[in-house]
Amino acid sequence: MLPPQPSPVSFEHLPDGLGIGVASPRLTWTLPAGTGRQVSYELELERRGGIRRTGRVDSAEQVLVPWPGDPLTSRERATVRVRVWTPDAASPSEWSTPADVEAGLLDAADWQAVPVGADWDEDPEGERRPARIRKNFRIHRPIARARLYVTAHGLYEVEINGHRVGDEALAPGWTVYPHRLRYRTHDVTTHLTEGPNTVGAWLGDGWYRGKYGFDGGTRNIYGTDQSLIAQLEVEYDDGTTHVVATDETWKAAPGPILTCGLYEGETFDARLHDPAWATPSAAGTGDWTPVRTGVRDPATLVAPLGPPVRCTEEIAPVEVTRTGDGRHLLDFGQNLVGRLRITVDGPVGTTLTLRHAEVLQDGELATRPLREATSVDTLILSGTGPLTWEPRFTLHGFRYAEITGWPGDLAAGQVTARVYHTDMRRTGWFECSDPLVNRLHENVVWSMRGNFVDLPTDCPQRDERLGWTGDIQVFAPTASFLFDCAGLLDSWLTDVGIEQLPDGTIPWYVPVIPGEPMWTPIHPGAAWGDVATLTPWTLFQRYGDLELLRRHYPMAKAWVELVERLAGPTRLWDTGVQLGDWLDPAAPPDDPAAGRTDRYLVATAYFAHSARHLALASAELGFDADAERYAALAAEAADAFRHRYVLPSAHLTSDSATAYAIALAFDLLTPEQRGPAADRLAEIVLADGARISTGFVGTPLICDALTDHGHLDVAYQLLLQTECPSWLYTVAMGATTIWERWDSLRPDGTLNPGGMTSFNHYALGAVADWLHRVVGGISAIAPGYRRLSFRPRPGGGISWARVRHDTPYGTAALSWELTATGMTADITVPEGCTATVELPGCAPLALGPGDHVLDTAEIGAAA
């Protein structure tokens, strides 16, 4: 009997291979259970009517394996299978289930479509009513296949013959549009019929021309047009083709969406909506006028690197309250990002107003934290019967919603919250014996979901929602454990490189939009700019993608060399604008950068840390001279740090928890200094009753700094504290996501008075990475988890924990429980991987692939 088959091949970091933008996509597969390891593989490609096999390739590689044939050409489709040989098998495995890959439009010359939109006068500085556009055409014979390649200036949803194409939201997402505009490929073969057909699109402003950003926002950041770019390619059964591309022959008309904005919400007048508008039966009806054509360089159209934004969950309200004046207040029990879907019937002209907020104040929606993001959706009924509706071109951050104008009583099932985010595959899970810690971890997951909406944002609810570089720099280790976010972050880092200034400065947030007076003009800042070096390294460690590291290497190098120039011969970065330990709980509400830690101490520490990681990346990429140079630079910066900021007692000039945490976690101290510095860090934490005293910089580091230097017990005290400020204080106050401030909601139930008071901000949830590695006990010790460490370090009264992670090679899992005689542990090592296990009081053990059950009472004490 042949061994079981490996998993189907996957392509790059994509959920499927349709419309891939890489001519030579790399291939990944996992081994069947019990395989142990792979010694050889064979790939089979079926393409252009023929089959080619590589023959047996002696290699253990199974993650991001190079494409085995000639590059794909535009539109070309191939089917790929793999089989493997293992050490003890006389024969290869069965072939994997076939997996299809199909190239998108890889050459700018492939595009015939031009941008088309409404050709009527608009006030570019005011709210503009979105258009719908359509095209009628005929299909002349049976179809073999049909593809729609589509994007927009603004947002779009496409229908063909009255049926929605795809299920993504806020397409095409947000990139640095002048340089990269994402298009998506859809298989629309089943949408078409012989004879007359109609393709149509809803359009919205989105990030392209909608009002976005601080202090009232800025309109038309990228342009004033609202346009569709679409190319429908039909291949008939005789091999001939028919192309329907956006051009001057399309028509436009005002749609039933009166206004739409990502901050403002959406207004929909059902009286103006013909559900058959995108069908042949609607031809000749309505006020359809010629379109205006625009210009787009097709070389800037790029295929996606990751999955789109979709609805991933629906949540019913847990409580509905009717107020005395007839409003309905809904509590969904979970702070989320999405929008409401309602089913309602009422007289013509009935107007329903839907408002949203994350928290209540005195029983009413607390909208002050939204600032100028009004987050109001409005529906005007047509009176023609029950209508199911949700907005198309907006999202809100909310737990509570208020509906005004509902006709009669609101019945169960008539209102649902639909959760939207980038549809990343979940890869990490954690739970333990402490229910408050479990809720904390769940809050981290929900904050990541709410803020990974096409790019990693800071918050999803107020007039901001930007790709802050510092937030994801500290959170990337947690993010890459919980979800497969490699494609999303690779795409966003590409935009970071585009937005990098010629001198190497990394912007505070990407894409860059106006941010006067604080954020524009752009200044280089530590921890935020270091996303250029640290986040590609994190992704390389978690996903084993060396080419990702290579692609972003020039950006990282330019950043470190900029800081080298700024620091000068002293190697001290002690000038310029720095945010320091942003949102230190001691900082005043109106000055989040005014924390307890010298901001230039932070800057110099990050200089050394980034230079060291650039040296590591250089070595991995084979740039030996660079590796030597940047390692020496890192050593010089660390030496400068010690001379300026470390006292003879090994205490620091900033006697703060963040200062010690960063010095210890970044390995900036001599061996003789580490013990006294760690003891002082523990003293500071305990002197404040184990309450948090760190901000964005110190919080991800402090538990590791304590754990790795003899104070695990203090790290657990910090984790399990429930008084403000602490992680579990927010849980005790009813949080279901991570807050921006430790006291976004104060102990007396009032809102923090600061202008930045978000209840959904993932940065301070970076502690979840420590939960996964230390409490749970799983960490990677080779890129992609090819080698793993299982080392749980229990404490704080936690008696059991379970952690699981779907690595690129398969599932790694550890479930441990304390017993009267020590600890038992159930361990799963992925096929093709090796592991070192170190249970409390025991010597390290080497384990191979498979499931293992260990008991410390049986395996012996540590040497």
Question: How would you describe the overall organization of this protein?
Answer:
With 863 residues, the protein is α+β, with helices and mostly antiparallel strands. A hairpin with a 3-residue loop joins strand 20 and strand 21 (265-269). It is globular, with a radius of gyration of 28 Å. The mean pLDDT is 96.
Query: Mean pLDDT, as a whole number?
Result: 96
Structural class: alpha+beta
The helix tally amounts to 16
* Unreliable stretches: none
Shape designation? globular
The number of E-state strands comes to 44
Rounded to the nearest angstrom, the distance between the terminal CA atoms is 45 Å
As a percent range, the share of strand residues is 25-35%
Helix content: 10-25%
The main β sheet shows up as: 10 strands, mixed
The whole-angstrom Rg is 28 Å
Which characteristics define this entry?
863 residues, 16 helices, 28% strand, 7-stranded antiparallel sheet, 10-stranded mixed sheet, alpha+beta, 22% helix
Spell out the blueprint of helices and strands.
Layout: E1 10-11, E2 17-20, E3 27-28, E4 40-47, E5 50-53, E6 57-58, E7 77-85, E8 99-103, E9 116-118, E10 131-139, E11 143-153, E12 155-160, E13 163-164, E14 181-182, E15 184-187, E16 195-204, H1 206-209, E17 227-236, E18 241-245, E19 251-254, E20 257-261, E21 265-269, E22 289-293, E23 301-302, E24 309-315, E25 319-322, E26 328-344, E27 351-357, E28 360-361, E29 364-365, E30 376-380, E31 387-389, E32 396-404, E33 415-422, E34 428-432, H2 435-451, E35 452-453, E36 455-456, H3 469-482, H4 486-499, H5 531-543, H6 546-551, H7 553-567, H8 599-620, H9 624-645, H10 657-665, H11 671-687, H12 699-707, H13 712-720, H14 727-732, H15 768-776, E37 778-780, E38 787-790, E39 800-807, E40 810-819, E41 822-829, E42 834-837, E43 845-847, E44 850-855, H16 856-859
Parallel strand pairs: 2-8, 14-23, 21-30, 38-42
Antiparallel strand pairs: 1-3, 4-5, 4-6, 4-7, 7-8, 9-22, 10-16, 10-19, 11-15, 11-17, 12-13, 12-16, 17-18, 19-22, 20-21, 24-33, 25-26, 26-31, 26-32, 26-33, 27-30, 27-32, 28-29, 34-39, 35-36, 37-38, 39-40, 40-41, 41-44, 42-43
